[in-house]
Amino acid sequence: MSPKTLYDKIWDAHVAHEADDGTCLLYIDRHLVHEVTSPQAFEGLRMTGRKVRAPEKTIAVPDHNVPTTLDRANAATMTEESRIQVEALDKNAKEFGVHYYPVSDVRQGIVHIVGPEQGWTLPGMTVVCGDSHTATHGAFGALAHGIGTSEVEHVLATQTLIQKKSKNMKVEITGKLNPGVTAKDITLAVIGETGTAGGTGYVIEYCGEAIRDLSMEGRMTVCNMAIEGGARAGLIAPDQTTYDYVKGRPHAPKAGQWENALEWWKTLYTDEDAVFDKTITLKGEDIQPVVTWGTSPEDVLPITGYVPNPDDFTGGKVEAVKRSLEYMGLTPGQKLTDIEIDTVFIGSCTNGRIEDFRAVAEVVKGKKIKEGMRAMIVPGSGLVRAQAEEEGLADIFKEAGFEWRLAGCSMCLAMNPDQLSEGERCAATSNRNFEGRQGYKGRTHLVSPAMAAAAAITGHLTDIREMM
Amino acid sequence: MEKFEKLSGIAAPMPLVNIDTDMIIPKVFLKSIERTGFGKNLFDEMRYNRDGTEIEDFVLNQPAYREAQILVAGDNFGCGSSREHAPWAIADFGIKAVISTSFADIFFNNCFKNGILPIVLPQEVVDVLMQDAEKGANARMEVDLEAQTVTTSDGEIFSFEVDAFKKHCLLEGLDDIALSLEKVSAIDAFEASASTARPWV
Mean of the pLDDT values across residues B83-111? Predict the structure, then answer.
């Protein structure tokens, strides 16, 4: 048998039908659903008299629109349109009989945090969701990617997706990370290297010692942003770290099946002689804490750097950088650590997990956020929130002056009331710094949780290594 | 889905690279539970001032391009979120083909589900088409999916590649769920064997 990559193996295990031209029906093991990209799909089923083929493999949770303030049980905290969208999900989940975590459930949260937390996401699975950050689940060695609403309807109706196979790309991070460098810095540094279209047409497998050394939380952060590099999906081969995370979760294989599952999971790695179509290698020790300065996630520089000059670029990027700098209100040559911040957002499917919050607590313990700073910590799920409270992290945040919120997507995409105002500048642990992403004319600098925490204290972008 | 007919129309130039789905349709418009009505908010933050008045120099507000049916855009068009509201807005505005050197994966797939043809061409060809688009309303570009060609207003013809299955679905306006359900016995068989091999799933 010819050697296979991890992606090849998962793909081959899920092809339900292959046409002569290579167009496949790929069987989907888990379909995650949220309120924004699903109402039209459920409506489509209703109009055609179709059912959800596998409701037991379909998991729904509202996350994008939901307010994160403590008073959200009061319906008045939501706009009329948001309320309609969340109610539509309530109704569709009930009508079509899919698993559901309503806003009132402590397990509610961001769909990509809830899935792994509840053990829905397992190695070797195919996982899709009408959300580009579905790539997150690749951390488990699951083939996971975002789909549009028409495809959501297709999966609901057929439990398959029409797909052609992507190419294989390897991103290897060798060696060890230096202190202050996190999974977020790895994933941003990779995008800085490849550009936002560098992964287009590929599924990335992240490997190397620095990746192996990451916790599941860190691996999820890395895979989460595979989409920002243009890749269909990001993958990390499962290992003991994965098995330890999965074991005992509500929907993980139970005793009796666990051993069988484990036996298969242990075959999920890239064979030694397998060929990748593209390979990128970064040395772990070369990666520094990074920050974005522009309006594309590829606009990445080490925190020790300076705002670049449009003339440093070529092609269409010259105009794009001019536009970015004007939007961001920055001047070429400006020191990145001189950029003043008025808002800090810590949360999202990229960095809204317990380990992220522990990192924040370590930085802010016993300190106060800068006067006038608006700083918000939004847990990725109700269970993350509960755990952070149990570990005493929430008290540290509140004492430092952070708002401690309920779970949701919040200011990552600002569909709920958590938004930047015009001209506000935010250090955010989320995944996109696009124009208007966090609010009309809001300005976003993407950073790791520790770096966001440091900025909250100092009031400007800060090299976390100077606070360690 | 409507059949994709041979297209002859005005092409609007948008040379900016990395036009993301937040630019195409900002999130404030994602709260609808319908598939229609997004066209008026296509490129909303680039197209309108906060008070709702038009930003004059934005390409689709210029008299020449208000009826554009083709968009010629910079690299990596449609990056970002999976929101199908982006192609819904493009289609609702009346744009039926987008030409670029590259498209983000999810956006690219979403286009085909909505009767929009995304055309990938090399930089030097996109440059020629961009120049042609900049000529304004008198320059009509032609897109022939059957023949897989784009013809400039000067009659210069460029061929493009397109996946055969996707082309077929666009030309015939096919509902791909119905097509997939024709293969339900294959799905049943797969499901049965997978549930034996991996019962924990």
Answer: 97
Residue B178 lies in a domain: yes
For chain B, the domain total comes to 1
From residue B79, alpha-carbon distances to A32, A222, A324, B74, B185 in Å are 21, 18, 16, 11, 36
For B64, the domain range is 6-197
- Confidence band of B145 (pLDDT split at 50, 70, 90): very high
Nearest chain B residue to A145 by CA: give it.
B106
What's the pLDDT score for residue A143? 98
How far apart are alpha carbons A31 and A40 in whole angstroms? Answer: 16
* pLDDT confidence bin for B1, thresholds 50/70/90: confident
**Which residues of chain A have a pLDDT value below 50?**
none
Query: Does any domain span residue B1?
Result: no
User: Which region, left, alpha or beta, applies to residue A230 given φ > 0 means left and ψ of -120 to 50 means alpha?
Assistant: left
B177 belongs to a structural domain: yes
Give the ipTM: 0.96
pLDDT confidence bin for B139, thresholds 50/70/90: confident
pLDDT surpassing 90 at residue B138: no
Please enumerate in sequence order all residues whose Cβ is within 8 A of that of B15, keeping only pairs 6 or more positions apart, or say none: A316, A319, B72, B73, B74, B130
Chain A CB within 8 Å of residue B164 CB: yes
Specify the CATH number for the domain of residue B77. 3.20.19.10
Cβ-Cβ contacts under 8 Å, A261 against chain B = 198, 200
B157 contacts chain A (CB < 8 A): no
According to the model, what pLDDT value does residue A75 have?
81
Interface size between A and B, measured as CB pairs under 8 A = 194
- Each residue of A229-251: b (16+ CB within 10 Å) or e? bbbbbbbbbbbebbbebbeeeeb
Determine the residue of chain A that is closest to B109 in CA distance. A148
Tell me the chain A residues in contact with residue B18 when contact means C-beta distances shorter than 8 Å: 196-197, 296, 298, 320
Interface of A with B in 11-40 (CB under 8 A): 13-17, 19, 21, 23, 25, 27, 29, 36-37, 39-40
Q: Is residue B165 one of the residues assigned to a domain? A: yes
